[in-house]
């Protein structure tokens, strides 16, 4: 018997920077996905889910994860496919998936499922590092959903620690586990459902690549170089990424010195940048941020994650 748990994540600051090799600062949350069950001798993965009407039955080797039905099985198949592509041979498994992570809420329920599947499937098969597991699950997500996501969600979920934010340099994949100042607490609020495969996420990835073609790696680009980009749309996209990278590092420094007012200011600036420059917000998410900023203990609030819906992350004074 095995039982594995993988937590969801919120992103405190640093959105749409990971796939350009920038910096991100996500944090694992209490809500999680659990897989429990037992290994079996035939080469099938059979799972039931507390949240899905239909079970999955995937036979190994997996041929095309994107064709698996029901659809939730694609994430499972993607991970098994990538483990096999790494030359490893996962065993058959029969079990149950249960989750306290709401699906489609922007809290990385798919990445949590992938990491949990990987940890089960790799048991007694290979001892991969958290970073290797995250990379494998990121490519599984690409195969399963067709969304060209970055590594933030999978790496935070694989390597994150309780009550620590996970500062990730998405170029080197170096991680720093950052304590939260005692005077601060983070909460998150679900606002509206979203799905990245139905969103403009892929368009943003292409626009960021066009900006990189013009000014080189955005993590090294100056604001002046970005402001000289002729195309106004690409200029705004690049300005978000360059300023957001700066905000992540300033936020991490403010967190270290316990400067929670600056943390709040940076979160609001990050939201405005997503609202106007990267255009990953919408009226409903903007209204939620404005409402939360009106609460007396709130220092900062921003859309968290891929955008186009999902959750708002909120920084509050803890003494409240
Ligand atoms: C989604 C992706 C991540 C990241 C965020 C935006 O959560 O899976 O890789 O790009 O959006 O920061």
Helix count equals 9
**In this structure, how is the largest beta sheet organized?**
7 strands, mixed
| Proportion of strand residues | 25-35%
Low-confidence stretches: none
- The H-and-E topology, N to C, reads as EEEEHEHHHEEEHHHHHEE
Terminal Cα separation, in Å?
Answer: 44 Å
Helix content: 25-40%
Question: Given the C-alpha coordinates, what overall shape results?
Answer: globular
- The count of strands amounts to 10
Ligand inventory reads:
alpha-D-galactopyranose
Mean pLDDT: 96
What would your notes on this structure say?
With 320 residues, this protein is of the alpha+beta class. 39% of the residues lie in helices and 26% in strands. The protein contains nine helices and ten strands. The chain has helices at residues 73-85, 109-121, 130-145, 152-159, 201-215, 223-227, 232-257, 260-278, 283-293; strands at residues 2-13, 23-40, 44-49, 56-59, 92-99, 164-169, 174-179, 184-192, 298-304, 310-317. The strands form two sheets. Strands 1, 2, 3, 4, 5, 6 and 7 form a seven-stranded mixed sheet that branches. A three-stranded antiparallel sheet has the order 8-10-9. A hairpin with a 6-residue loop joins strand 3 (44-49) and strand 4. Helix 1 packs across helix 2 and helix 2 packs across helix 4 (152-159). The N and C termini lie far apart (44 Å). Bound molecules: alpha-D-galactopyranose. Alpha-D-galactopyranose is lined by residues 11, 15-16, 18-19, 149-150, 152-153, 305-306.
């Amino acid at each position: 018997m095995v039982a594995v748990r993988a937590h969801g994540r919120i992103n405190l600051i640093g959105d749409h920077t990971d796939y350009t090799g920038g910096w991100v600062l996500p944090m694992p949350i209490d809500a999680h996905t659990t897989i429990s069950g037992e290994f079996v001798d035939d080469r099938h993965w059979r799972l039931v889910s507390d949240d899905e009407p239909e079970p999955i039955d995937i036979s190994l080797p997996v041929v095309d994860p994107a064709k698996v039905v029901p659809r939730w099985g694609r994430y499972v198949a993607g991970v098994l496919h990538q483990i096999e592509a790494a030359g490893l041979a996962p065993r058959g498994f029969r079990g149950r998936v249960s989750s306290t992570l709401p699906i489609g809420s922007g809290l990385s329920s798919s990445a949590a499922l992938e990491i949990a599947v990987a940890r089960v499937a790799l048991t007694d098969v290979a001892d991969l590092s958290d970073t290797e597991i995250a990379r494998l699950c990121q490519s599984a997500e690409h195969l399963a959903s067709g969304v060209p996501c970055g590594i933030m969600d999978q790496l935070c979920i694989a390597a994150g620690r309780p009550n620590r934010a996970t500062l990730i340099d998405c170029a080197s994949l170096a991680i720093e586990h950052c304590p939260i100042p005692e005077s601060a607490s983070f909460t998150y609020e679900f606002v509206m459902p979203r799905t990245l495969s139905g969103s403009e996420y892929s368009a943003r990835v292409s626009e960021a690549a066009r900006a990189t073609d013009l000014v080189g790696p955005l993590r090294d680009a100056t604001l002046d170089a970005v402001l000289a980009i002729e195309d106004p749309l690409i200029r705004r996209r690049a300005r978000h990424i360059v300023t957001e990278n700066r905000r992540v590092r300033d936020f991490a420094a403010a967190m270290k010195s316990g400067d929670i007012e600056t943390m709040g200011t940076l979160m609001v600036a990050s939201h405005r940048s997503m609202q106007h420059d990267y255009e990953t917000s919408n009226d409903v998410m903007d209204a939620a941020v404005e409402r939360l900023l009106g609460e007396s203990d709130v220092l900062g609030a921003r859309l968290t994650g891929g955008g186009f819906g999902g959750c708002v992350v909120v920084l509050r004074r803890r003494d409240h």
